């Protein structure tokens, strides 16, 4: 181990961590005997050789829930989507915002009206022109209550958007009147006007987010199910979908109608859907994948120890946490929630399980965003680990709920070995420090998401990658009406603070409102932060041009294969 285990850990947990996190375990020895990641440099198939088409092979880990921009909601959708579509703007390497479908834009003096001017000659993959009307249609489609888009709230910055999306109106004429009040309008084929409720400093970044991608209006109206099959799929990005074998894989090829096609070097991206990261790692080592992400935790340790040039560990604006179902006893009691949060050793988890330089998290907002003074926003640890206090809080909380002991409960996590190891470590810590028992339950990613939406769980593993580089991306997730707030927790004061931050154009006021909101949130503890992410992935040495934004999985758009 890199450092000794904290005194919070019992000897039994130390044994567990030795099995899961150190190079001396059976799995690690096997990998070491096979030279860890070093054989990966000899991999690769003839499909991606210099003599044939350049095919990049990656693993998406899971079946996308949807590849419709209005219906996508997670990383298994957003990663392929960002290579199929492009928005008005695009965030590129170095977190720079560049023109994409829009070649330029004007912003009104009050910061509330944006006028985007689209490029000449931009086309969909089927040859149709991309127009401003496609953007207007797409955004209003996402907001339509009948679409039931989980991510529609990302459009609430637009005038009239929230009123339309949250309407319970059944009269079609009245609903259409609400739609017409949404502040997005195609002034002509090449000009899109957007009116915001309040000035939004990060709106240009949002304009490149996948919920803001355009949809071909004609295609959607002719076939509402166009996004479910490769044969009917139409996109405007650097690649177009040519094959979708559900639960198996995706294939996309270079889109010759893409406006910037000359910068695209690879001919095809093949996306596997292998949930087990150990299996995916073996595919990488044997040459069947060119990029491996996520990586098994023990492999990360081996690659770090050998200083492998294939290992990349990049910053990630993300927080790993456990959700509490606050509608269920005893997790409705804040003392119980705090007790569980205070009885685990986060440093031991990041040192001995995850092993990729993650930082223990004692707040919600991840490391990486800046405050009104240009300093790191995250400055406060809102709680500390304290087993004695945790025991006291647990006893008090259970008594308040009429319980004499902690009932058995389950930790739900999606099928990934790293999540299992973390859950096993936390299970052991709670047993040793609080004398309580829990069971572990794994589920396929989309099944887990569906269960969380239905509040069909006790405690659930979760993580949140910021959609944009501002603390608000974490704050508005837990408002009472947010479709991402799968905890059952609601707080009007919290809602008001988030709204105050959204409405203010004064950075000092904005940031203080979000600090106050985060403090209130952590006092209530509807989720238990565990660590702030990093992004460890492996890339073959012949693959060039891959980079990772703090808010995204690795960007493959500008990749090249040079053998």
SSE topology:
Layout: H1 11-21, H2 26-33, E1 55-59, H3 75-84, E2 89-92, E3 96-99, E4 102-107, E5 113-118, H4 132-143, H5 161-165, H6 172-180, E6 184-188, E7 191-195, H7 203-206, H8 217-222, E8 239-245, E9 249-254, E10 268-272, H9 277-285, E11 291-292, H10 297-305, E12 311-324, H11 334-342, H12 346-354, E13 359-360, H13 387-400, E14 409-414, H14 417-434, E15 438-443, H15 445-453, E16 459-465, H16 472-475, H17 492-503, H18 507-524, E17 527-539, E18 543-544, E19 560-561
Parallel strand pairs: 1-10, 14-15, 14-16
Antiparallel strand pairs: 2-3, 4-5, 5-7, 6-7, 8-9, 9-10, 11-17, 12-16, 12-17, 13-17, 18-19
What would you note in describing this structure?
The chain has 563 residues and is of the alpha+beta class. Among the domains are: 84-231, Dipeptide-binding Protein, Domain 1 (Dipeptide-binding Protein, domain 1), CATH 3.90.76; 316-535, Dipeptide-binding Protein, domain 3. Helix content is 31%, strand content 19%. It has 18 helices and 19 strands. The chain has helices spanning 11-21, 26-33, 75-84, 132-143, 161-165, 172-180, 203-206, 217-222, 277-285, 297-305, 334-342, 346-354, 387-400, 417-434, 445-453, 472-475, 492-503, 507-524; strands spanning 55-59, 89-92, 96-99, 102-107, 113-118, 184-188, 191-195, 239-245, 249-254, 268-272, 291-292, 311-324, 359-360, 409-414, 438-443, 459-465, 527-539, 543-544, 560-561. The strands form 5 sheets. Strands 11, 12, 13, 14, 15, 16 and 17 form a 7-stranded mixed beta sheet that branches. Strands 1-10-9-8 form a 4-stranded mixed beta sheet, covered by helices on one side. The protein has a 4-stranded antiparallel beta sheet with strand order 4-5-7-6, covered by helices on one side. Helix 1 runs antiparallel to helix 14 (417-434) and helix 11 (334-342) runs antiparallel to helix 13. The longest helix has 18 residues, at 417-434. The radius of gyration is 24 Å and the shape is globular. It starts with 10 loop residues before the first helix and ends with a strand.
